[in-house]
Amino acid sequence: MELLSQTIICGILLGGMYALIAIGMTLIMGVMNIVNLAHGALVMVGMYVTYVCAQEFGVDPYLGMFVAMLVLFFLGCLIQKFMINRLVEVESILPENQVLLTVGIMLVLTEGIRLIFKSDYRSVVTSYSSDTLYFSGMAISVPMLTGFFIAMLFTFLLHLFLTRTDLGKSIRATAQDRDAAVYMGINASKITMITFGLGAALAAAGGSLLLPLFYLWPDIGHLFTAKSFIITILGGLGSTGGAIVGGLILGIAESLGATYISMGYKDVVGLVIFLLVLLFLPGGVRSLVKRWQA
Amino acid sequence: MNKIKKLNWLFALLVLLAAIAVPWVIKAPYHLHILILVMVWATIGTAWNLLGGYTGQVSFGHAAFFGVGAYAAGLLNLHYGLSPWWGMALGPVVAALAALPIGLICFRLRGPYFALAMLALGEIFRLMFTNLTEFTNGAKGVLIMPEITSKMFFYYVGLTVLVVTLLVTYLIVHSKIGYYLVSIREDQDAATSLGIPTTFYKNVALLPSAFFTGLAGAFYMNYVAFIDPNIVFNLSNVSVMVILVVMMGGVATTWGPTIGAGIYIALGEYFRATLGSANVLVFGILVCLIIMFMPNGIIGGLETLKQKFFRSGTGLPGGGNGEVLRS
Fold first, then answer.
1. Which DSSP letter does residue B53 get?
2. How does B140-162 read in b/e, with b if 16+ C-beta sit within 10 Å?
3. Which residues of A touch B (CB under 8 A)?
4. Which chain A residue has its CA at the smallest distance from B138's CA?
5. What are the residues facing A122 on neighbouring strands?
6. How far apart are CA B105 and CA B184, in angstroms?
7. Using CA atoms, how far apart are residues A162 and A155, in angstroms rounded to an integer?
8. pLDDT of residue B276
9. Model pTM?
10. Does pLDDT of B98 surpass 50?
11. Least Cα separation, residue B86 to chain A (angstroms)
12. pLDDT for B130 beyond 50
């Protein structure tokens, strides 16, 4: 019983942090309507920025996170404005061109980082990295708990931003109907750029929160791309609340799979859930909620 | 139209003769090795092009078929001691069989969802082959002792594989089925409303695509003699790379994938020799530039140029010349 509850709690905590990364992706997907395969690479770059802050300047990872978010915001804006946006105007046979461009960006980011930092496994060691809390026989790691709460705080702030501010409302309007938003006087291309930057910043935040828990190497990005997809589809495209639920489901499913099936099949569990949701619940959790409300 | 068709066949024949003559001119094993790799990639690319280029079902999981073909050959040798050359017969069949349920599942989805489902399936295959250690040897991979080591022999086998793939793809695309496939890419709803059973024809495109990808996999196993799940089921180095190869050469063209494969392998080797550890980075930048400035690949780009210079358009959007299929 303790093993089960420990597994579930661990899954929830991890899932909350995954959710933050996935919210970044779902924002981008919602507004731009593209599959961003470079998202994991953005997470990875964010993690390296935090890592450098911690290693070179002795900045605590939870503070370095803000530096990473700022850097990634601008990086995201630049990528959107000068690369992905260009493709909107070009004619091509396959509409998947933008997706492929994100693959190219992923390659460039991963290899650029590899060139600078080599493929070595790195990790940030802080005074609290191995701290754990014990209660009723369960051990919970402190960085995991802190990461989870910061992730939830960010999600809440983002929710406020999207629902209460003009900029946030413009982002939601653009996601709902781009043309209509333009008619209402919203500068859609600027909004798209900001959204991409915001998505990248959230990715960096999620990555930095996970930094004390994961080893860091240039290819870690693939892992996060896959996870954020699964979460985005699970939760329903473009839905922040859905992304949280999706993140928690994935986190729990993964840790249950790791504990009760085997470490090697941990990722298979996530992928199988992903396929099943794609096939049988294409709208994700959000469509369930809607059906229940109606 | 007919004259142009004849010219195209003549051109193809000349290319084939040149390709047959190559090993008598270039004897260095390293150069032959590069050419063999080009043929492997050209085969996968041509096979992918049938599904992704002509039918418009962009698959991010072709590594699954490649890997299954390669493992069919390797495991035949590992478990039953049979010559891995039997895998050249078994591999493609197993890959096509694997494609059947995959098609049934994934063709329920459209556009980016299809792409994502294929991506997930490719990864599931990789993880399964890594974890089923008794059957597949897991991450240790499969090593075979090749009986033949002559590069020239492999060159001709590879050439045969590529020629057969090109020919079959060409025949499919230029038959009535080809028009169905393109209509699905251009507008699936319109195709359905005209009475084309779209799901059926998507499967018709998928099966040969998987078959020839599996064939390329089995040939790869025989040639390289060592595989592990991270080589043949690799997402970025196989599944995604094949898309980039086709994009570079030209989507939905006969020669595009082959040209793309040539560029990919040649540039890859050249960068590796000259740039050291920065080679993949430069390659990535190049990929970005090609997609941004030549979204229809090199053949597509050339055609745009040709149209700009000659303006001899036949009145068909996308330029006549029997290329109506493309746009």
1. I
2. ebbebeeeeeebeebbebbbebb
3. 34-35, 83, 86-87, 90-97, 99-101, 103-108, 110-112, 114-115, 222, 226, 229-230, 233, 262, 264-265, 267-268, 271-272, 274-275, 278-279, 282
4. A264
5. A216
6. 18
7. 10
8. 76
9. 0.85
10. yes
11. 31
12. yes
Task: Give the position of tokens 């969802």.
Answer: B113
Q: pLDDT digits over A160-180, tens only?
A: 999 999 999 999 898 888 888
For residues A44, A46, A50, A51, the Cα torsion angle rounded to the nearest 10 degrees is: 20
Pairwise CB contact (< 8 Å): A111 & B280: yes
Min Cα distance A134 → chain B (Å) is 34
pLDDT band at A258 (very low <50, low <70, confident <90, very high): confident
Q: How many Å lie between the alpha carbon of A245 and the closest alpha carbon of chain B? A: 20
Partner residues linked to A132 by β-bridges: A141
Instruction: Find tokens 């991979």 and name the residue.
Output: B141
Give the number of beta-carbon pairs within 8 Å between A and B.
126
pLDDT band at A188 (very low <50, low <70, confident <90, very high): confident
8 Å CB contact between B281 and A98: no
ipTM of this model? 0.78
Which residues span the domain enclosing A218? 2-293
The answer to whether residue B327 scores a pLDDT higher than 50 is: no
- Where do we find the tokens 């060592």? B226
Q: Which residues of A touch B199 (CB under 8 A)?
A: none
What is the overall mean pLDDT for chain A?
Answer: 86
| Residue A144: CATH number of its domain | 1.10.3470
Q: What is the DSSP letter of A216?
A: B
Q: Strand B142-143 relative to strand A138-141: parallel, antiparallel, unpaired?
A: unpaired
Alpha-carbon distances, residue B41 vs A63, B144, B253 (angstroms): 47, 21, 16
Domain count, chain A: 1
B62 contacts B242 by C-beta, under 8 angstroms: yes
Name A266's Cβ contacts closer than 8 Å, sequence gap at least 6.
A254, A257, A258
